[in-house]
Amino acid sequence: MSSNPYAWLETSLDTIRKANWYRSVNPIEGKAGAIVETKGDRLVNFASNNYLGLAGDNRLIQAAQTATEAYGTGSTGSRLLTGHLPLHRELEQMIAALKSTEDALVFSSGYLANLGAITALVGQRDLILGDEYNHSSLKQGAKLSQAQTIEYTHNCVEELEDHLRGERHKYRRCLISTDAIFSMDGDICQLPQLIALAEAYDAMLLLDEAHATGVMGKNGAGCVEYFNCTKKPLIQVGTLSKALGSLGGYVAGSRMLIDFLRNRASTWIYTTGLSPADTGAALAGVKISQSEPERRTALWQNVAYLRSKLQEYPLKLLPSQSPIICLSCSKPQQALDLAAKLRQGGILAPAIRPPTVPSSRVRLSVMATHTREHLERLLKYLYH
Ligand SMILES: *Cc1c(COP(=O)(O)O)cnc(C)c1O
Question: Roughly how many angstroms between the first and final C-alpha of the chain, as a whole number?
Answer without folding.
Answer: 56
